[in-house]
Amino acid sequence: MPVPDRLVLNSKPQYIDAEMNWEDPLYRKIVDALPASASPATTSPASMSLRRSEADRAPAPTAGAMPRVHSHRIMLRRTLSSVAIALLGFAMQSRTDASDDRHNSTGNEYGFSLHSSTRLPNLGNPMRTRILPPILFALLAVASACHQQSDPVVVAPALNAASSWYDIVAAQPDPAVVTDAEARARMTATKLPWKVRDRKTGIVMLLCPPGEFMMGSPASEAERMDNEAQHSVTITKAFYLSETEVTQEVWQKVMGANPLWLQPTNNPVEKVSWNDCQSFCQSSGLRLASESEWEYACRAGTATAYSFGAGITNEQANFSSGRTVACGSLPANPWGFREMHGNVWEWCEDEYEATASSTQDAVNRNSSTSRVLRGGAWVNVTSFVRSAVRSDGAPDVTSGGVGFRVARSPL
């Protein structure tokens, strides 16, 4: 809804005679007729200005919104109010003139004041006091009608500001985490905050900027599989991806139950199907990452088998172990994401196909088709936690060692 542009008459105009009687009945009558959008704030004879009330100013544009755009009705209202106030001063001057004329009149039947060669004609005091007030009231009525009209408000998102769905954790990428200066520059160029917290779930998410990368694995990579054909993918739109896998605590908060027992709630949720993840996303307003988005974030600018290099250790990833580890307990990759290798397989939005998509968008044509799983799990050997490894599962199947992380578009 539009914010009223309330006009405040906070002192008298500079062009009104300093000897004016501000308690004059005509002045009070006119002031009482002012529309709700204008009122006298004081009767002090100090210099006067028309301004908007501090208390009723439109609030500063909130995050994610452009400044309000005032319509022609507001401009008309301001103009009419200004003219009305000017006429008020002109009419009130007549009271002073009338008093002077009673003492100085030479019988001029037209009401000209003759005692000063520089004085403007008063046009007849009766004319000013009887005709100008109705004109003033008419102007104020039109101004009041304009005030009652609804004014359009144009609101558009502002990029580098808090959005309606998140709170900013860190506006700029941390050089200690995102060590590549070129990657930091691309993140900063989006004018989006680097690290945010989803307000509904409390999930911390990191920014992935637009860019291009080689998806899949080269023929020379050890233990690569046939479904890892290498191809170029362009990420055209920035997106957010959760820093860690979704925890049991967050799952229970959103879904009301934990599918696991006797495990720390800060470990990743397991035994959730792709369909279960869709229910979670519908409840939270988040989504699964597309397969290309997932690998883009996992590689984080690297081209090696793992985001940590050509090899990987158990100090860097959870694989060939007996169970999951707490989310966020292992080192981050070059963009700040944790446990992308191992811990639990992660559902992606895409249908599984022999060759991965060459676009950012998920392949999603038939809900009954097998869905993509990425990243490997705590139970797998080293080769199954490589950046390029692809697997799949039926959308309604649950299994230990299978969880997910979430994504979201910035706006």
Account of the protein in words:
It contains 8 helices and 15 strands. With 411 residues, the protein is of the alpha+beta class. The strands form 4 sheets. A 6-stranded antiparallel sheet has the order 4-5-6-9-15-10. The longest helix is centred in the first third of the chain and has 33 residues. The protein is globular, with a radius of gyration of 36 Å. The two termini are 22 Å apart. The N terminus is likely disordered.
Strands, count: 15
The biggest beta sheet reads: 6 strands, antiparallel
Mean of residue pLDDT values: 76
Strands of the biggest beta sheet: in what spatial order?
Answer: 4-5-6-9-15-10
Q: Low-confidence spans: pLDDT under 50, at least 5 residues?
A: 1-22, 35-72, 95-124, 149-161
Q: Helix tally?
A: 8
